[in-house]
Amino acid sequence: EVHLVESGGGLVPPGGSLTLSCAASGFDFKSYWMHWVRQAPGKGLVWVSRIGLFGTTTHYADSVKGRFTVSRDDSRNTLYLQMSSLRVEDTATYYCTRDFPGAHDASDYWGQGTLVSVSS
Amino acid sequence: EIVLTQSPGTLSLSPGERATLSCRASQSVRNNALAWYQQQPGQAPRLFIYGASARATGIPDRFSGSGSGTDFTLTISRLEPEDFAVYYCQHYGYSPITFGQGTRVE
Known about the structure:
heterodimer, B: mainly beta, seven-stranded mixed beta sheet, four-stranded antiparallel beta sheet, 11 strands
């Protein structure tokens, strides 16, 4: 069974940094593109980033470009999101998702999310 | 960037009724790369429809997707109690991936 478990969220002041992790199990992690999607409290879904196989291809939403870095460690079956220069508007639940083989860039499995709160 | 506009914002219906949710794109969605997700309160979203009309694994056939180009529709033929949730459309296949703002079915 596919499992995605995010961790690393918490309270951080504006301008601070945080690294999220997503531990994957139940599938051949290295063979899948992966994504991060976020959802501000009471708001809709926003795609944040994606990473291709071997980590050689990455893309970001304009709102996080230059501040966030996605990476993966296939030996540990883990996806990461390094976040720096955090802003109040980055406050959200961050979901790790698996790319759906039947529709590249749709997401067929989602973690339960980890909450990042940016506040002084 | 493709902007997706969902309507209505909220749909108030009763069990057994038919629900029709709309998703309009600001430009044509290539290859019908349009998905629908359901999100229950406090839960992660779940993929329901991809390719505009294909049901994901385990999705009941009362859910159907249709449309092409810029206009897409999710139809729930007869609402069951577990169908009351928020639904999001998503365009995928090239960056930036975008979501609509959601339709709440209550």
